[in-house]
Design brief:
By secondary structure, this protein is mainly alpha-helical. It is built from 21 helices and three strands. A three-stranded mixed beta sheet has the order 1-3-2, with helices on both faces.
């Protein structure tokens, strides 16, 4: 006779499989699906989303969870079964507040809006996307209403990506970051500028692709359980820990964009590939939160990929591939070039010192939209005003401004803060890693990332979503998410580069 823990896992396995099918369709939509397939794809995804939601919110799971909660209390609180029951109970409590009709409509609307965004961006015309976003904002307000009463309307949205964190918590962290980062940027602006003209070139795509593949293979990306494709906006998706796919893109007049995109997405993928097989086909088979996930992408992209140690090893190879453009550029100048601080229009291409400001302005806009203080039709104007306020530059068009990110078209309002939080966590982890791996920098200089990946596997990756994100950060680093290590890192790095 099937036991109750086994029955719960059996249902969760089915839910996981249904989610995997949706992820496959979503991956195809952003990589190979013809534009004309958007409407049918939206219907397919909507149907699957409804079936998945109905299966997970069925009364049977509620009864099982009530019966299993006392059992969970009798187990080691950090055991797989105890954590699975508690995490499932939390998610069940959330999802049963949301109607299946809402889930189906939201899925269909966002699927269609992603194609509308591509068209609007191509024509640099926000009005083509406006009606889609208006409906998405309306639906996200409805979603927040499912969770009343709340301290803030944005809390329910943020919780989907960063469980347990509140809007006020993030605002407190961002207030501390903003003051320090603006001061640092001003100090850098007053110093001798760094030359990065040698990066503003168009390099052979295949050679860029091959070099990126070479680098992330060395990082430890498992090609037997993953692949890379092109996409307008790079992303990572997982159909299970044995099928984790990444994408990248190539930009004209940007000789390093594709490489850093590839390293960034590889960081996400390494996390997913490292989750313990014990957690397969359950709610625990994912990252603990998006901040934890972003900590991995930013760690490999920036703390490793923009370090002098990394390029001490890989730069000769890079010069060999692109001798005409990089052959006469010294390692020191190249290192400074890829770390140049300069306010820029595009978030994903921005430097480490200004990146968080891009995130902060997006969060402010999202909060205003949710509070009803900002109308979607006014977004381009408000976006440009905030770009001038935060970064001192004005986008010349919608494509390089309000239309640059894919997140709103997918309904991911509440996601953006996790990018900046991920930066903070990445350095908290990095400080701990350097403590426990004293030869880390010499290993990176030798192109050896084995110990680094093993440390991340042991301390973070294997646990998947077993632990709440703040608890996970405390467990590893000894403190909750904090801006101080990141600020120390920025000041130290850029004081050296700019002789501050």
């Amino acid at each position: 006779m099937e036991t109750k823990p086994t029955r719960l896992k059996s249902i969760l396995n089915e839910v996981s499989d249904l989610n995997g099918a949706q992820e496959v369709l979503g991956w195809d939509q952003q990589t190979y699906m013809p534009a004309g397939g958007a409407e049918a794809r939206g219907e397919e995804l909507s149907t699957l989303a409804r079936i998945t939601h109905d299966r997970f919110t069925a009364d049977e799971i509620g009864v099982l969870l009530q019966d299993l909660l006392p059992y969970a209390e009798s187990l080691d609180p950090e055991s797989d079964d105890a954590r699975l029951i508690h995490v499932t109970h939390r998610e069940y409590g959330k999802q049963t507040k949301v109607s299946s009709d809402w889930v189906a409509e939201f899925t269909q609307i966002t699927s269609m809006s992603q194609e509308a965004l591509v068209t609007a961006r191509t024509e640099s015309n926000f009005k083509l996307f406006q009606p889609h976003l208006e409906r998405i904002v309306e639906l996200r307000r409805q979603y927040a209403d499912f969770f009343k009463p709340y301290a803030h309307v944005y809390d329910a949205l943020l919780d989907d990506y960063e469980p347990g964190l509140k809007t006020a918590d993030v605002q407190t962290i961002f207030d501390r970051l903003r003051t320090e980062q603006v001061a640092l940027i001003k100090a850098i602006a007053a110093s001798k500028p760094v030359d990065d003209s040698f990066l503003k070139v168009t390099l052979d795509e295949q050679k860029q692709w091959d070099f990126g593949v070479e680098v992330i293979t060395r990082f430890g990306y498992d090609w037997m359980r993953g692949r890379q494709d092109k996409a307008p906006h790079p992303f990572t998706t997982s159909f299970g820990s044995d099928d984790v796919r990444i994408t990248t893109r190539f930009l004209p007049n940007s000789g390093s964009s594709a490489l850093f995109s590839t390293m960034h997405e590889c960081g996400h993928a390494l996390y997913e590939q490292g989750i313990s097989s014990r957690l397969r086909r359950t709610l625990l088979m994912s990252g603990a939160s998006m901040a934890l996930h972003e900590s991995q992408s930013r760690l490999w992209e920036n703390l490793v990929g923009r370090s002098k140690e990394f390029w001490s090893h890989f730069y000769p190879r890079f010069q060999t591939l692109f001798p005409e453009t990089m052959g006469k550029v010294s390692l020191d100048n190249f290192y400074k070039g890829i770390n140049k601080v300069e306010p820029s229009l595009i978030r994903v291409e921005s430097d480490e010192a200004t990146y968080n400001l891009h995130v902060m302005l997006r969060m402010e806009i999202e909060i205003a939209l949710m509070e009803g203080k900002l109308q979607v039709k006014d977004l381009p104007e408000v976006w440009n005003e905030k770009m001038r306020e935060y970064l001192g530059i004005t986008p010349p068009n919608d494509a390089q401004g309000v239309l640059q990110d894919i997140h709103w078209s997918g309904g991911s309002i509440g996601y953006f803060p996790t990018y900046a939080l991920g930066n903070l966590v990445s350095v908290q982890l990095w400080e701990k890693i350097q403590e426990e791996l004293p030869s880390l920098h010499s290993q990176i200089r030798n192109g050896d990332f084995t110990s680094l990946l093993a440390w991340l596997r042991e301390n973070l990756h294997q646990h998947g979503a077993k632990f709440d994100p703040q608890d996970m950060v405390v467990k590893i680093t000894g403190s909750k998410i904090s801006p101080e290590p990141y600020l120390r890192y920025l000041k130290t790095k850029y004081s050296e580069i700019y002789n501050l």
